[in-house]
Amino acid sequence: MIKAVNSQRPVNLDLRTIKLPVTAYTSILHRISGVILFLGIAVLLYGLDKSLASQEGFAEVKECLTSPLVKFVIWGLLSALLYHLVAGVRHLIMDMGIGETLEGGKLGSQIVLVVSAIVILLLGVWIW
């Protein structure tokens, strides 16, 4: 009797127990930050449109930007932008042939995480 499937494959994957490499986390975060930017641009464009429509609209947007919740949302959007920028620069550097090895990819991912964390914290200090 011939088996149709490879017996070495796991039957039931428990996603909570799978250990991903650091490069996978940076890749997943890069995609998530892109989605956040795509969705957040609508909110920012609405605020821009409202602020340019009239003086009253500008005053409303200005007042809204003093709210802690709105500051948190803006910080989140700018954090996504900064992470996406830093990870994108890493991809551009890799396109030039630098850091394409397994060790270089891991080091590049670690650098992206550290640089992004520092810049995002500095951004939070600046906003608050």
From TrEMBL:
<keyword id="KW-0479">Metal-binding</keyword>
<dbReference type="InterPro" id="IPR018495">
    <property type="entry name" value="Succ_DH_cyt_bsu_CS"/>
</dbReference>
<feature type="transmembrane region" description="Helical">
    <location>
        <begin position="69"/>
        <end position="87"/>
    </location>
</feature>
<dbReference type="InterPro" id="IPR014314">
    <property type="entry name" value="Succ_DH_cytb556"/>
</dbReference>
<dbReference type="InterPro" id="IPR034804">
    <property type="entry name" value="SQR/QFR_C/D"/>
</dbReference>
<feature type="transmembrane region" description="Helical">
    <location>
        <begin position="107"/>
        <end position="127"/>
    </location>
</feature>
<protein>
    <recommendedName>
        <fullName>Succinate dehydrogenase cytochrome b556 subunit</fullName>
    </recommendedName>
</protein>
<comment type="function">
    <text>Membrane-anchoring subunit of succinate dehydrogenase (SDH).</text>
</comment>
<keyword id="KW-0408">Iron</keyword>
<feature type="transmembrane region" description="Helical">
    <location>
        <begin position="28"/>
        <end position="48"/>
    </location>
</feature>
<comment type="similarity">
    <text>Belongs to the cytochrome b560 family.</text>
</comment>
<keyword id="KW-1133">Transmembrane helix</keyword>
<keyword id="KW-0472">Membrane</keyword>
<comment type="subunit">
    <text>Part of an enzyme complex containing four subunits: a flavoprotein, an iron-sulfur protein, plus two membrane-anchoring proteins, SdhC and SdhD. The complex can form homotrimers.</text>
</comment>
<dbReference type="InterPro" id="IPR000701">
    <property type="entry name" value="SuccDH_FuR_B_TM-su"/>
</dbReference>
<keyword id="KW-0349">Heme</keyword>
<keyword id="KW-0812">Transmembrane</keyword>
<dbReference type="Pfam" id="PF01127">
    <property type="entry name" value="Sdh_cyt"/>
</dbReference>
